[in-house]
Specification:
- By secondary structure, this protein is an alpha/beta fold.
- The protein folds into 3 domains: 2-129, no CATH class; 134-244, 3-Layer(aba) Sandwich (Rossmann fold), CATH 3.40.50; 267-457, no CATH class.
- Helices cover 54% and strands 10% of the residues.
- It is built from 19 helices and 9 strands.
- The chain has helices spanning 2-28, 30-37, 40-59, 71-95, 105-129, 144-155, 175-179, 195-201, 220-228, 236-244, 254-259, 267-288, 292-302, 351-358, 366-372, 385-394, 411-415, 422-438, 441-457; strands at 135-140, 160-167, 188-191, 206-209, 232-235, 308-314, 320-326, 376-378, 407-409.
- It has a 5-stranded parallel sheet.
- Helix 4 runs antiparallel to helix 5.
- The radius of gyration is 26 Å and the shape is flat.
Length: 462
């Protein structure tokens, strides 16, 4: 998923530069363009233009691959993105007229870019929805586990399509796979005795191993033969992660975690991440501190109690720290109930508090937590010690989310709605562990921009 997004964004950046200089040629002529290109200011202007264009496209969900499944959606989102770009760039040009590259260039540029971006995204859509361009998956197994993987392959028509199932119904193999057939009989194209033949018959290029039990029944020789013949082989948790952008908690084992790629952070990355955290926290505080007195005054008018709310949370390596927020609940919110999750239309939340939560303004004091090193800008959201102890007892691998610093925002926050139950905690843990496994600058950047959309459109607050 990250590779697909990176490809879309990279090509869009190239198209934005192409559109900008094509418009300059049309509007200003070749000689004047050559003169402008020799000016260092041209590079700065180009960078500003590309950043605003990409930001606007992301804001208008041009890069939401799950929503842009038809040409009409792509065209509409591109037009919304261009409209947003026009207003943002007009504001930038008003504040800093020095970045303008000639009169009338902006309109022509956006027109050219809208055409180029639409054509590119439609072409990408066609190439990833046509069955001929998708990777055909043969699922090894016919039980419930295999059925779940098969449903994922069948529904993910961008990159994968289901070629069929290969059963293990042969002598000396798993009886459960033989008796409990959980997949359509007509999609079973072969068995493990001739896995290579089944793969050729189904015209598959990927095998996903989804057996209920591998010990003593895994067709090692046949799978190895397929692997040596250039067929991609992966296990069910890896395929699930690739398609869903989260981890399959039910099937991962300690050995899978140990031998899988990921879960690696270099010292250089850690230092850079901390440096970016400090920079963003300082900038955020400088921009928002002037509004703190206004927010504080509004909180005091709305209800009795302190302006700030502090609460113990579990941080990196399960060390507790004090988290700070603007108060959004009554002062005695948990006097009778003790620690409980927030719920929809929670009566403990004040009228102003509901607005502060939906707009995420109540989270601003956590920039201080980021600055002093208790939190990172991006990471799993910190939970209360009372909840952590309960969740550790019922959810496998829950403690693993504490191997990095908690974040002001995270992968679970931009991919999943607000959680207020054990089931929600499990689902969020899938995303948190995915983030810890795949942590990298590009994923942090994606989460940062997705968070901007969450804040602007008020998604997931409670």
């Amino acid at each position: 998923m990250l590779i697909r997004l990176a490809l879309l964004i990279l090509i869009d950046a190239v198209l934005a530069v192409t559109a900008l200089y094509s418009a300059m040629l049309v509007r200003l002529g070749e000689s004047e363009v050559e003169e402008i290109l020799h000016n260092v200011q041209a590079l700065y202007t180009t960078v500003v233009f590309v950043v605003v264009i990409l930001f606007s496209s992301n804001l208008m969900e041009v890069y939401d691959l799950d929503k842009n499944t038809r040409k009409r959606e792509i065209i509409i989102n591109v037009l919304f993105g261009m409209t947003t770009s026009f207003f943002l760039l007009s504001l930038v040009y008003y504040v800093n007229p020095g970045v303008i590259l000639g009169r009338g260039v902006l309109i022509i540029t956006l027109g050219i870019y809208a055409i180029l971006q639409t054509c590119w995204h439609v072409l990408y859509l066609i190439s990833h929805t046509d069955q001929r361009f998708s990777r055909r998956v043969l699922v090894l197994g016919t039980g419930q586990h295999a059925a779940q993987i098969g449903d994922l392959a069948a529904s993910n028509n961008r990159n994968f399509s289901l070629a069929g199932y290969a059963s293990c119904n042969s002598s000396g193999v798993n009886d459960n796979e033989r008796v409990n057939l959980s997949v359509p009989q007509d999609l079973v194209v072969g068995n493990a005795d001739d896995l290579m033949g089944a793969t050729i018959q189904a015209n598959a290029d990927t095998i996903v191993v989804a057996l209920s039990e591998r010990r003593g029944v895994f067709p090692l020789r046949d799978v190895l033969m397929c692997k040596m013949n250039g067929i991609n082989v992966m296990d069910a948790p890896t395929f699930y992660e690739l398609v869903q952008g989260k981890l399959m908690l039910e099937s991962i084992t300690p050995s899978w975690i140990i031998f899988s790629t990921g879960f690696r952070r270099t010292n250089v990355f850690s230092v850079c991440k901390r440096g970016i955290d400090i920079f963003l926290a300082v900038v955020g505080l400088l921009l928002t501190l002037p509004f703190f007195p206004i927010i504080a005054f509004a909180i005091k008018l709305d209800s009795r109690g302190p302006v700030f709310f502090k609460q113990l949370r579990v941080g990196n390596k399960e060390k507790n720290f004090m988290l700070y927020k603007f108060r959004t609940m009554r002062q005695d919110a948990e006097a009778d109930t003790g620690a409980i999750w927030s719920s929809k239309d929670d009566p403990r939340i004040t009228k102003l508090g509901k607005f502060l939560r939906n707009s995420r303004i109540d989270e601003l004091p956590q920039l201080y937590n980021v600055l002093i090193g208790n939190m990172s800008f991006v990471g799993p959201r910190p939970e209360r010690p009372e909840f952590v102890e309960k969740l550790k007892q019922v959810i496998p691998y829950y403690s693993k989310r504490h191997f990095i610093k908690p974040g002001l925002t995270g992968w679970a926050q931009v991919r999943y709605s607000y959680g207020s139950s054990v089931e929600d905690a499990i689902e969020k843990l899938r995303y948190d562990l995915y983030y810890i496994k795949n942590i990298c600058p590009s994923l942090d950047t994606l989460i940062f921009f997705e968070t901007i959309k969450v804040v602007l459109f008020g998604r997931g607050g409670r």
